[in-house]
């Protein structure tokens, strides 16, 4: 009669599970952090686009910055994170738009830049990557001239 000897290998399974679990959890959390980064990048680009769309009919800088912040509420942007630049279309960024407040604005363009400092939620991944500065930018030609009081009443207001 043959006897079967039972081996004590339950501890081995626990060690193997622990060795596989740690990289698996890091992978899942890494995917979560990448998803947050993609969301942030998409959100700031959308915020810049919507704020620039407002700027083509309402050149009130506070309204434009408020629109950008409103489109990116989940990111907690501040006014300092949004830049609004009006410039002459035929001269390029860096030139002042002299036609704001005039009846003709065909040569004015607006550029809205939204910045966001992304930090990974996971400390380990955050230490490896550090802070990443993301920038969303949009540029349109000004369609109608409107600046808050004193001046004409704006289509989207003060």
Features:
single chain, 158 residues, alpha+beta, 3 helices, rod-shaped
Overall description:
The protein is an alpha+beta fold. It has one domain (11-141). Helices cover 41% and strands 18% of the residues. It is built from three helices and three strands, in the order ααββαβ. The protein has helices spanning 10-55, 61-71, 123-129, and strands spanning 82-88, 108-118, 132-141. It has a three-stranded antiparallel beta sheet with strand order 1-2-3, with helices on one face. Helix 1 runs antiparallel to helix 2 (61-71).
Set out the fold topology.
Blueprint: H1 10-55, H2 61-71, E1 82-88, E2 108-118, H3 123-129, E3 132-141
Antiparallel strand pairs: 1-2, 2-3
Helix pairs in contact: 1-2
Mean pLDDT figure: 81
What general outline do the C-alpha atoms trace? rod-shaped
Structural class label: alpha+beta
The largest beta-sheet arranges its strands as 1-2-3
C-alpha Rg, in Å?
Answer: 27 Å
Give a short account of the largest sheet.
3 strands, antiparallel
* Helix segment tally: 3
Give a quick precis of the structure.
With 158 residues, the protein is an alpha+beta fold. The protein is built from 3 helices and 3 strands.
